[in-house]
Amino acid sequence: MKKYKKLLCAILTLVLVISLFAGCGSKTEQKEVVTVCEVTHSIFYAPQYVAMNLGFFEEEGIQIELSNGQGADKVMASVLSDNVDIGFAGPEASIYVYNEGKEDHTQVFAQLTQRDGSFLVGREKDEDFNWDRIKGKVVLPGRKGGVPYMTLEYVMRKNAIDPGKDVTLDNSIQFALMAGAFTSGTGDYVTLFEPTASMMESEGKGFIVSSIGEESGEIPYTAYFAKQSFIKENEDMIRRFVSAIYKGQQWVNTHSAEEIAEAVAPSFPDTDMELLTTVVQRYKDIQAWSTDPVLKEEPYNLLQEVMTQAGELNAKAPYDKVVNNTYAEEVIK
What we know:
Number of helices: 16
Oligomer: single chain
Order of helices and strands: HEHHEHEHEEEHEHEHEHEHHHHHHH
Largest sheet: 5 strands, mixed
Strand order of the largest sheet: 2-1-3-10-4
């Protein structure tokens, strides 16, 4: 009898364990893994990290696998080669691909940032900075053809600086290595994203003298895109993805810099809270983040004008071919 009871207990225990594991498995299966390649890792993309860290993607049944492409060209290459599902970089990348005549070109389906997120960093404090200061100087602007580079040139022209004559733009240094090159003595000024710019300032190795985004005005700066074929085959997932991003945008728009800093902190474990809060406040002050994921036509046309002025665009790409607002418009209704 005792042996029978022991056997029965063992069977019941085994059934319970199997049930528990089965339950865990079913929850995992409910989450759709989506691979996203971001152009760089920056607090500039706070709404994305808020959506990840506060569970907005989980609410939509999505698990994000995030990688860092370190450049829009590399992000686009990953998307076109099907190494990742979704790219996150400047819309200019999709404009270039469309103009190359690719049949299965990428489409932008959600905008995240609406201003340039980089800051001009000099070697000395300059509270009274004006753009005449950079005449005759060497500036590290990033990759030629990228939005940071072109927006910087646009701001220079707005301030009566000829990028081709008045300054030397040294674009020989890779995006990810610019901060290190500057601290090692290369160049007089460098454009950097946060938190790198503020970290450099806190260490006394460079000083923020101007916000490129504040100077340039509204421009579609960073957005999500995927191949047309992928979007058509995964419409429900794209809709849920955009919904999570929209929740992140709305949350950021209605919360303080301190609250946002706490929400994004897990994505920046090596950055202290005081610095995080400072950086977030800087981006809030210039209204860097879009409050919804719709990429409007007027800013899109301005981006193409900036690209044209930079000599990077020979033919303008139709708005309705490069931008697909279907899902963004659905989720905000």
